[in-house]
Amino acid sequence: MTTDDLKDFLDEKAELYNSKSFIENDPIQIPHRFSLKQDIEISGFLAATISWGNRKAIIKDAEKMLDFMEGEPFAFVKNFEENDLKTLDNKSIHRTFSGEDFAEFLRNLQRLYTSHESLEDFFLLQDGEQNFYHSLARFRQAFLGENMHRSHKHVSSTYKNSSAKRLMMFLRWMVRRDNKGVDFGIWQRINPANLSIPLDVHTGNISRKLNIIQRKQNDWKTVEEMDLVLRKLNPQDPAVYDFALFGLGVSGDFK
Fold first, then answer.
1. Count of alpha carbons within 13 Å of 210, Cβ hemisphere only?
2. Cβ(203)–Cβ(160) under 8 Å?
3. Do 143 and 106 meet the contact criterion of CB atoms below 8 Å apart?
């Protein structure tokens, strides 16, 4: 397949899957229940954090967190007191993400929002940076703080060569802007051209079948290998191809 053929193919599939019908069966439906920027950020970040495994289970378990926050994520994060978290001690949220982990995430979010209006502040690129390798590490440090709680394992480290799939997915949701109604595009200070594909089993397997990547591991080095190809196909919006690659992987349309 030539480069032009690959671009035509991926553009066609991205157009097919990047539609409002995508929302119904995807964790992105969780932040779509809100209109306030901070509600979208918080619910999106929490839903992305538990986005591994069965998508129906992810959505159901994200709803547990919304219910605990009484359907008002930002108001809850701003105003909760420590006693409000006690019922989470022995609660199960999603697989290895426990109630204790959720409680620590809420503490961390409250700390960040005490001094900043938006989580976007913690993901901004610095001069000379073309991807989120350093940005995600800075966010991780700011979010986890000095207390190395057990929940740190749920915030991926690019410095340990993680693909940071869930954080990259959260970034796609917040940063990408088009007229399709799936991604929010509410973070205006981050350029979509710097986004990378959230690399998981689906996007990785399809990318190998299309010879976009050669590496067998789903790690940060592979994310950068994908960037080399996808940013040539669409320099302004390379992450749009997440819809094509993920959609093909989930649907089984591409064998």
1. 26
2. no
3. no
CA-closest candidate to residue 71, choices 112, 49, 42, 95: 42
Task: Give residue for tokens 């995600």.
Answer: 136
For residue 22, give Cα distances in angstroms to 17, 78, 101.
Answer: 6, 31, 29
- For every one of its 255 residues, what pLDDT tens digit does the chain have, with 9 covering 90 and above? 899 999 999 999 999 999 999 999 999 999 999 999 999 999 999 999 999 999 999 999 999 999 999 999 999 999 999 999 999 988 899 999 999 999 999 999 999 999 999 999 999 999 999 999 999 999 999 999 887 777 889 999 999 999 999 999 999 999 999 999 999 999 999 999 999 999 999 999 999 999 999 999 999 999 999 999 999 999 999 999 999 999 998 877 665
DSSP reduced 3-state for 83: helix
Local structure of 219: helix, strand or coil: strand
In this structure, which amino acid lies at residue 211?
A: N
Report helix angle 37-49 to 55-68, nearest 10: 130
User: What are the distances in angstroms from CA 67 to CA 60, 62, 122, 197, 253?
Assistant: 11, 9, 27, 30, 36
Pick from 148, 165, 150: nearest CA to 102? 150
Q: At what angle do helices 201-209 and 241-251 cross, to 10 degrees?
A: 100
Residue in 223, 187, 237, 170 with CA at minimum distance from that of residue 26: 170
Q: Which residues contact 207 (CB under 8 A, 6 or more apart)?
A: 197, 213, 226, 245
Please give the angle made by the CA atoms of 192, 162 and 113, to the nearest 5 degrees. Answer: 60
Beta strands 97-98; 92-94: pairing state: antiparallel
